Amino acid sequence: MSSSPHRRRNALTGEWVLVSPQRSKRPWQGQQEQVQAEQRPAYDAGCYLCPGNTRAGGQQNAAYKGPWAFTNDFAALEPLQTSGMADRPVPGALLQAEEAGGTCRVICFSPRHDLTLPQMEVPAIAAVVDLWAEEFSQLSADPGIHYIQIFENKGEVMGCSNPHPHGQIWASTFVPPEIEKEDRQQRLHHDAHGRTLLEDYLAAEMADGVRLLDTNEHFVSLVPFWATWPFEALVLPKRHVQTVVEFTQAEREALAAILKALTSRYDNLFGVSFPYSAGMHQAPVNLGTQPHWQWHMHFYPPLLRSATVKKFMVGYEMLAGPQRDLTPEQAAERLRALPAVRSF
Ligand code: H2U
Ligand code: ZN
To answer: Which of 62, 142, 180, 339 is spaced 20 to 30 A from 170 at the CA atom?
Structure first.
């Protein structure tokens, strides 16, 4: 199977990915382009995220010293104006719409304009995890909120508008489509086996070993068996945890350490600050108990062959389904061979 075209099923979404390893049999031509190392100042007076600066909407940032959050001035979601009934989809109607409410937050990871996650110390990243948990608690206190998406868009190629290290949180009144897929798959597995899908999956990956990246006392990072993006990664906890608030102090530090190791391997791959969209998936809130849910974090980086050659999800992928050449095992081998600390 490993050298001929085959399909793999993403157990989390139920969707299939086409793998064509024969197309990457040609020898690796991984010359690193000399991409000019970007030098940024620790503080940039023109940055709307740096401490003390004024944002586009006229608001002034706090003189913050650690991670800090504010409500997005150009939020995609706003609190519902009506206190009454939401517009309900009409069954069978072809033109359906419903009210969508919520809140969007921006999280500055550090007051330092010139750092990224792999360049931050583990305790400083753990402080970001603390803030994620605090924000999650506060946002989920609103009974109208049903899902909280914590994520980071990194790099211009991902549409990130500012190099100051930051992420976002969108809390919505609805459960978004990617979460609905994972909810369904995890529920089916839990109903059938009485265990969470991702705990069983982690056991299978640990037994197989070939896609593992880093392991510590509380977390494992790996290239998933069903990865779509060339260097996609998944971070899994070793115990059953539904949301970020449940992590103990030791787990927060271990998560910080594994995030630092993964993002450092990424930077070392092509010798650049590696772009990605990353985010955690966790149980919906205010919808009763969710025993089938296991917290996890996805990394979707677009780069394929070098600092500038990215994978495009176009053509067959837009019209039919995702496809990859490099196998997840090859991707894991390459990432594993790199230092887990940033080497430049
Ligand atoms: P991205 O770089 O991932 O787009 O995130 C930056 C966010 O910061 C973006 O969502 C918000 C944008 O709306 N923002 C503010 O809230 N205030 C500003 O003054 C500029 C940008
Ligand atoms: Zn800044």
So the answer is: 62
- Determine the distance separating the centroid of ligand 1 and the alpha carbon of 282, expressed in angstroms: 24
- Its pTM stands at 0.95
pLDDT of residue 27: 58
Q: What is the DSSP string of 135-175?
A: HHHHHHTSTT--EEEEEEEESGGGT----SSEEEEEEESS-
**Does the CB atom of residue 77 touch ligand 1 within 6 A?**
no
Question: Residues with Cβ < 8 Å from 208, sequence gap 6 or more?
Answer: none
The ranges assigned to domains in the chain are 44-78+99-336
Is the CB–ligand 1 distance for residue 160 below 6 Å?
Answer: yes
**Residue 3 or 82, more confident:** 3
CB atoms within 10 A of CB 163: 19
Torsions phi, psi for 202 (to 5 deg): -60, -40
- The fold of 44-78+99-336 is HIT family, subunit A (3.30.428)
Determine the residue type at 259. L
pLDDT at position 263 over 60: yes
Residue 120 vs residues 77, 165, 188, 263, 281: alpha-carbon distances, Å: 30, 10, 39, 11, 23
C-beta of 46 in contact with ligand 1 (< 6 A) = no
Q: What is the mean pLDDT of the segment spanning 242-253?
A: 98
Ligand nearest to the CA of 70: 1
**Letter for the amino acid at 143?**
P
What letter would DSSP give residue 193?
H
